[in-house]
């Protein structure tokens, strides 16, 4: 894409599921693009970005990938998986407390052989910690390649520009709904769907320090320059639903859990409590509010994140609601 090569690690295009039970009940044509069903490391959206990032890393002679995120970062887990497949080292730096147990993604990170560095969120700049970690490994002879939060830079977003090309082959029209975290997924799709009849809504998952539309414009302009795009945007071009934080980033929420139960019990598809469950909860609300119309074709991008249900804070909240169906026979 745009002269940037990639190292293929996926079988593309990803599958499409038609959600027949929910389509009937909700009165929409409901499709899901299964970016959760991608090869490495239990799957997820970060792999499309990593196809481009790993090529760039190897091109630059790197022997080690370093990335950042929360302790339960899906992106860190998939970076660890891609590093393993390429026989590279990997370190994940998280500004986070130890969750009390080696759980979910952190457990998988270590199973993939990645090093995890946790630093108390005490105001120390993240990049200072990254530098410390990189120095340590470089003094041992490694060549480190840094991947930003969520893989969301100009290179990572190429993976979702490519996903947009798939969607245009698969659907003539429709409304694409996607969770919006570090924004690379949304922005890649936005650029790729620009010339199509597919509309795109990003569901904001986490608070932004600056105005999210300003951030989106700046990110777009960086991409525009790097990919040599020939169109401009204003803030109004971005459709971002900002009302669905449900208590904050990765905070357990009853509304989100109810959405997860609904999807699992209607379609046998598991959503995660941080991103996709929140996105489905938002979609249900948008339907109720008439922001999504009856008979619309909805294309929900399932971005993965399954290990999130095993995060201690989420697991406890699930347990409180679900133990009533567990009978211990004497
Ligand atoms: C990272 C992530 C997202 C958000 O993607 P961004 O490109 O960071 O906006 C959505 N869903 C899951 C499961 C993720 O891990």
Account of the 3D structure:
It comes from Frisingicoccus caecimuris. Keywords: Pyridoxal phosphate. Its cofactor is pyridoxal 5'-phosphate. It is a single chain. The protein has 330 residues and is α/β, with parallel strands linked by helices. The protein has 2 domains: 16-43 and 154-321, Rossmann fold (3-Layer(aba) Sandwich), CATH 3.40.50; 45-151, Rossmann fold (3-Layer(aba) Sandwich). The chain is 40% helix and 16% strand. The chain contains 11 helices and 10 strands. Pyridoxal-5'-phosphate binds next to helix 3, strand 7 and helix 7. The site of pyridoxal-5'-phosphate has 21 residues, from helix 3, strand 7 and helix 7.
Q: Which characteristics define this entry?
A:
330 residues, alpha/beta, binds pyridoxal-5'-phosphate, four-stranded parallel sheet, 2 domains, Rossmann fold
Q: Which of globular, elongated, flat, extended, rod-shaped describes the shape?
A: globular
Domain module tally: 2
Major beta sheet, strand line-up: 1-2-10-7-8-9
Count up the helices.
11
The biggest beta sheet reads: 6 strands, mixed
What is the highest CATH level, the class of the largest domain? Alpha Beta
Total number of β-strand segments?
A: 10
- CATH architecture classification of the largest domain: 3-Layer(aba) Sandwich
Helix content: 25-40%
Which compounds are bound in this model?
pyridoxal-5'-phosphate
Spans with pLDDT under 50 lasting ≥5 residues? none
Summarize the structure.
This protein has 330 residues and is α/β, with parallel strands linked by helices.
Helix and strand topology:
Layout: E1 16-18, H1 20-26, E2 29-34, H2 46-59, E3 64-69, H3 74-85, E4 89-95, H4 104-111, E5 115-119, H5 126-138, E6 144-147, H6 158-170, E7 174-180, H7 184-193, E8 198-204, H8 212-227, E9 240-241, H9 254-267, H10 276-288, E10 297-302, H11 312-322
Helix pairs in contact: 2-3, 2-6, 3-4, 6-7, 9-10
Bound molecules: pyridoxal-5'-phosphate (PLP).
């Amino acid at each position: 894409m745009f002269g940037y090569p990639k190292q293929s690690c996926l079988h593309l295009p990803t599958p499409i599921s038609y959600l027949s039970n929910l389509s009937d009940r909700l009165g929409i044509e409901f499709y899901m693009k299964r970016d959760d069903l991608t090869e490495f490391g239990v799957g997820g959206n970060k792999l499309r970005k990593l196809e481009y990032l790993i090529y760039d890393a190897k091109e630059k002679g790197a022997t080690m990938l370093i990335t950042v995120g929360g302790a339960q970062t899906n992106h860190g887990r998939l970076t660890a998986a891609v590093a393993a497949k390429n026989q590279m080292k990997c370190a994940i730096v998280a500004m986070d407390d130890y969750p009390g147990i080696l759980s979910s993604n952190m457990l998988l990170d270590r199973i993939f052989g990645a090093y995890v560095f946790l630093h108390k969120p005490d105001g120390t700049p993240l990049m200072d910690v990254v530098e410390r970690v990189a120095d340590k490994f470089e003094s041992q002879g490694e060549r480190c390649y840094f991947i930003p939060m969520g893989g969301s830079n100009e290179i990572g977003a190429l993976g979702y520009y490519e996903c947009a090309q798939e969607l245009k082959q698969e659907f003539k029209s429709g409304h694409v709904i996607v969770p919006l975290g570090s924004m690379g997924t949304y922005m890649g799709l936005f650029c790729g769907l620009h010339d199509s009849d597919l509309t795109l809504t990003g569901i904001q998952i986490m608070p932004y320090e600056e105005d999210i539309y300003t951030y989106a414009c700046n990110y777009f302009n960086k991409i525009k320059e790097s990919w040599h795009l020939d169109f401009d945007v204003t803030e109004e071009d971005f459709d971002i639903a900002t009302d669905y934080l449900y208590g904050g980033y990765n905070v357990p929420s009853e509304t989100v859990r109810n959405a997860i139960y609904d999807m699992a019990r209607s379609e046998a598809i598991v959503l995660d409590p941080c991103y996709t469950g929140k996105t489905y909860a938002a979609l249900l609300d948008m339907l109720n509010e008439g922001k999504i119309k009856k008979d619309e074709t909805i294309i929900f991008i399932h971005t993965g994140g399954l290990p999130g249900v095993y995060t201690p804070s989420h697991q406890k909240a699930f347990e409180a609601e679900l133990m009533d169906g567990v009978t211990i026979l004497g």
